[in-house]
TrEMBL record:
Protein name: Triosephosphate isomerase
NCBIfam families, per the entry: tim (TIGR00419)
GO molecular function: triose-phosphate isomerase activity
Pfam families: TIM
GO annotations of cellular component type: cytosol
Record keyword Metal-binding present: no
Pathway: Carbohydrate metabolism; erythritol degradation; Carbohydrate biosynthesis; gluconeogenesis; Carbohydrate degradation; glycolysis; D-glyceraldehyde 3-phosphate from glycerone phosphate: step 1/1
Organism field: Methylophilus rhizosphaerae
SUPFAM superfamilies reported in the protein's UniProt record: Triosephosphate isomerase (TIM)
Subunit: Homodimer.
Length: 260
């Protein structure tokens, strides 16, 4: 099995202001020195300049919460992949359920965005996951495959490994009700297996994250699962101490794996 250091990504959604952002990023910089795990912050787009100024030449990456599938054009209110790249972004979140639910993205356009991100030199974080109704009907496997396959169709299985996949059950996002570690492991193992049917090397290389009500109390169990390579953290990224604690847990697990 390939070595996959834990990756913890802060999705701060539509939160923050200049002073709070500075405090959050400076605290993270100071308290995650010499860590083996990887970290990234995805603030609202207006604060990407601040992230670039505070985090450049550091061990912490930053990225966008969304982007257009077009490089330029008459798309009022949209942000192009080239704009994100110009502000030093490494990552971009694609297909978050909060955007899918509002009709801004669907399975097909996520494939187009994933492809556009790779073309711009960004690492896309593709969010997939089922609603509560789909979960209760036992359709989780069908849903994640339906959401993943259009991306593979657009970029090919080899290029898929240049991105990251985040399994985020919709019923766990912002609800305080995280998936059990066993459920997260089962679905991520299924996703890795589905990719492995097409290319075993890609399935071993690609990073798989879990997102949905991760907090300092459950992070060790969730991130400790063999196919959970990190977390996409929403609510807990708004509390500096909580997010740093999750980062510390991820780092301890990474170093434990490296030492094994």
């Amino acid at each position: 099995m390939l070595d996959r250091p834990k990756l913890v990504v802060a999705n701060r959604k539509m939160h923050g202001n200049l002073p709070d952002n500075r405090q959050f990023m400076q605290s993270l910089l100071q308290q995650t020195q010499q860590h083996s795990a990887r970290y990234a912050i995805c603030p609202p787009h207006p604060y990407l300049y601040q992230a670039q100024q505070l985090l450049q030449n550091s061990h912490i990456a930053w990225g966008g919460q969304n982007m257009s599938r077009f490089e330029h054009g008459a798309y009022t209110g949209s942000v192009s992949p080239l704009m994100l790249k110009e502000f030093g972004c490494t990552y971009v979140i694609i297909g978050h359920s909060e955007r899918r639910q509002r009709g801004h993205e669907n399975d097909e356009t996520c494939g187009e965005r994933f492809e556009a991100a790779l073309k711009a030199g960004l690492t896309p974080i593709l969010c997939i996951g089922e609603t509560l109704e789909e979960y209760e009907r036992g359709e989780t496997d069908l849903v994640v495959v339906r959401q993943l396959n259009p991306v593979i169709a657009h970029v090919g299985i080899q290029a898929l490994s240049q991105g990251v996949i985040a399994y985020e059950p919709v019923w766990a996002i912002g609800t305080g009700k995280a998936a059990t570690p066993q459920h997260a492991q089962a679905i991520l193992s299924f996703i890795r297996g589905h990719i492995g049917l097409l290319n075993e090397q890609v399935s071993e290389k690609i990073g798989l994250l879990y997102g949905g009500s991760v907090n300092p109390g459950n992070a060790a169990q969730l991130l400790g699962m063999p196919d959970v390579d990190g977390g996409l953290i929403g609510g807990a990224s708004l509390v500096t101490e909580d997010f740093i604690r999750i980062c510390q847990i991820a780092n301890a697990l990474t170093e434990l794996k490296t030492a094994a």
